[in-house]
Amino acid sequence: MSQPFSILFICLGNICRSPLAEGVMRSVLQERFPQREFLIDSAGTNGYHTGEAPDERSVAVAARNGIDISAQRCRQLGTVDFNRFDLILGMDQNNLMTINRLAPAGSSAVTGLFTAVARDGFAGNSADRGEEIPDPYYGGNADFERVYRMVREAAEALADRL
């Protein structure tokens, strides 16, 4: 039996955007492909919040949209991830630069900006031109709602490509 298709979402601290992307993508894939198995996870480029739950505002916006991300725990991107996941997707250009800098030689993962890969596909590691999903950490509820909408749109587009 083959391994499930796998996607790792990356943001700075793994407390706002990437946990939301993990939860939304998992929900979209369960809706669209109920018989297919996927491995969906998230991590941060730094380890500031390792072991912590996602930001309560991300948990709240997800819950308002019928998605429970409260059991997720933050972790840091590691070199092992580059051979564990098919896609490693950053939320912004800084995330993507860090992902590409950490990628070991011979990595099997396709890396890219989440919105660019969702829009253009994942045939190569050049999917870096797309809209950044802004970090809502220092913003308010409206910022988290905007990020949710952006993540949902990108997740739907990415699911169209699977």
TrEMBL record:
Protein's name in the database: protein-tyrosine-phosphatase
Catalytic residues of the enzyme: C11 (nucleophile), R17, D135 (proton donor)
UniProt-listed Pfam families: LMWPc
EC number: 3.1.3.48
Native organism: Pseudochrobactrum saccharolyticum
Highest rank taxon of the organism: Bacteria
Swiss-Prot/TrEMBL keywords: Hydrolase, Protein phosphatase
Family stated for the protein in its record: Belongs to the low molecular weight phosphotyrosine protein phosphatase family.
Species lineage: Bacteria, Pseudomonadati, Pseudomonadota, Alphaproteobacteria, Hyphomicrobiales
Domain Phosphotyrosine protein phosphatase I, residue spans: 5-161
SMART domains hit by this protein: LMWPc
GO MF annotation: an example: protein tyrosine phosphatase activity
